[in-house]
Structure formats: structure tokens, C-alpha cells
Amino acid sequence: MKIDLNWLTESLNAAKEGKSLAPLESCDYVMEHIYQPLLRGEQVLFSELDFDAFCTEDLWELDRWIEETENTRYHLRRLNLKFCEAVPVSLAKRAYC
Amino acid sequence: MTSGEIQQALPSIALAHLFYEYGKLDAMIKEGYNEPGDEFYAYFLDLLYITADFVYEDYVDDYDVARWYFSNRAMVEYYRLCRTYGCAHGLKLKDNPYMREAERFVESAMDLGNSYGYGWYLNTKVGHEWASGIVFRTDCYFDGEMELLEALLSIRQWFEVGVQRLRKKLAEEQQQAAPRYMEVMAA
Questions:
Q1: Domains of chain A: which residue ranges?
Q2: Does B18 contact chain A (CB < 8 Å)?
Q3: Whole-model pTM?
Q4: Is the ipTM of this structure higher than 0.85?
Q5: If you measure CA to CA, which chain B residue comes closest to A46?
């Protein structure tokens, strides 16, 4: 595989600026009391949740956010893998950067 | 849990939220569902039994069709009182405003949005303990589990409120009728 770094730099510069991977801010309660504890492998009990602090739509928003985050992670992993697999080749003639 | 596993568990949290809204979270927890889980269909099938006082299921394996029957004490009493009201006012069942009101509510509740693979029928008979109820049929394409649970919870709640309203109405009418009866008897 060949990676043209000049082309890559130009492409990244020309790329339209998209959304950064922002944390889900619409419902702090869902993040703090559901998502993060579950991610840490902690037990979440329905009897201890404050159901007035969030609505069902917040859960679907979290679902979309996870989807988006995972999608971005997947593409970054693929890009990283491509760089890792690339074998550096010396230029035929001397060049100064 | 991984993010993917958390995604799988979100519908169970949505169910808990739904049961909380209808005051049935304790019943859900008592049923053994106090934690988020990824087996949504298991939750759904078990929780159906909390949505009504009487639930009967019949599965026809050959056609992959499930038939359900959901009945509530409040619903049966409501339809009994509807008949009492109808007798007192000389109304046929189809002209009874309380019958029509209940029918309209159930119709709107049982419209499960964009779901498909189901059919239902409202039984308003009062001949036995669970004579009034909803006959519900699903096939293998049914995809309105969450909507069905919400519909059944809302129907139960509606009849619980409705039966109190109707009891009160009949009691008032009885009170008003009593002095008139005494006057007639005295005359």
C-alpha cells in the first residue's frame, strides 16, 4: 500500500470541517447515571433511578450518540491500521523538508 | 458493558420508564426486572402480564400466530355500570354515551402507530368475571411491542378512572331519584 502524504495533507486541508466528537450534553442524568456506570461495569438498578430526571427520547438520543461515536471510532481505527500497515519507502533521490 | 451492549439495553430502560409513568414500576421490579438487559422480547412477554388483571395467551404453532386476551376488573365493572346507566335512561348499548366514550378511547389507544402484524377486538360483554376485554392477535411480523404495552397500560388506567366516574354519576342519580320516589309513594 502506498500513502501519498502530500496528497493526504492537501485532502485534509481541503476537507469540509465537520462536527467534532462532542459529548452528549442534552441529558446529563442519562450520561451520569446510566451510560457511564454501565460502561464501567457497575450495576444500575431501576429502583434507584430518578425517572422524572429524563424522558424516553433522551435514551434514543443516547442511542444515536453511541452509534455516531462508534462509527467515528471505527473509521479512526481503520485509518490507524492503514498507517500501521504501511511500509516506509526511501526516496530515490535526496530531498530536504 | 460495551457501548454496543448498552445500546441493546436501552429499550429495557425505556420500558422501565413507561411502567414508571403508569405507576407500575414496582410491579415490574417484583416481576424480576430491576436492571437493564438486552433481552427485550423476554421483558415484553413477561411485562404483558402486568398490563391487565387477567391475561390469557394461546399460540398457534402452525401459523405462527399468537392470540392474547387482556381483561381488567375495572373494565368489566365499567361495562356492567354502563348497562345500569342504559337501563335507567332507556338507552340501547349502541346509544349509550359511556359505551361510545370507552370505545373511542380503546380505538385510539390500540392504534399502534406504524406497527403491523396485529389485529384486535374489544369485547364488552359482562356475562362472567373476565367477560370484557381485548382480544389481540399477532403474527410473526408484529413489531409494536412497546406500543402495545403502552396501549394496554393506558387502557387499564382509563377504565380505572372511568369506572370511578361512572360509579359517582350513578350514585348521584340514585340520590336525586330517591326523594322523587318518596314523593310518588306519599302521593
A1: 24-85
A2: yes
A3: 0.82
A4: no
A5: B34
